[in-house]
Amino acid sequence: MEPHSIQHRIKRGRLHRIGRGVYAVGRPELSQHGHWMAAVLACGPRAALSHESAAALWGIEPARGNGEIEVTVRVSSARERPGICVYRRPSLPHGDLTVRERIPVTTPVRTLIDIARSRDERSLERAVNDADKLDLVDPITLHAKLAEHPGQPGVGSLRALLGDRVFQLTDSELERRFLRLVRAARLPEPLTRQRVNGYLVDFHWPELGLVVETDGLHYHRTPAQQVRDRRRDQAHTAAGTTNLRFTHAQVCHEAEQVREIVAATVDRLRAAVGEEGLARIPGA
Question: pTM for this structure?
């Protein structure tokens, strides 16, 4: 548009100046998304929302900041803009950029790397967990993607946070690890992969009426799967079966607590069943 056309529309109230070369159409009030879009537009066609501002757009909480909107530009230099914190990255790959709500923004992985520089471990862990809950990026994928950003600030903090907690066990490996907990506690050996109350379960002590399920890292996170899990648990409860459910992370990293819970449950059920019933349990 020619300058005189812009000025005409400003006088008529059709355009409202937000910043240099950026105008709101129709009314001057902007939503938070509008302020983010205006900041990106003000920084030019090679700009994207980034850092804590990007975290807020993705819904990763708690998003923090100093009041300025943070924008990354893929140039070596850029003009300063009031109220905007500009980061200059000449080599920012296209793979680190995407669009959300029509706003150019850094990807969830790039955003987590960027905010890792300014967050303490606890706050960063919350951000990683939130990204996982929102299905933006899971810890395994995040850990793998860090290899594509060697030596960049923030990568070391994320590596230290994730550590060895992101490896995933197969169903058979998870089963073997749980069985080792059972044997270490000197508990009776359960039956595996049995159908109980109409469902295939991971571990079953029939004489005790005890079922244990171990949830894999990926297979129990969707709303539909969670509903199915609740129905399974409710069916066991309705049938009088004691049901325990442990996550992948609990079996791998909280083994002692899992062992104590299973042992206490078995002891309680043993007392209820009595020695006569216990004698029929394989390995008792």
Answer: 0.63
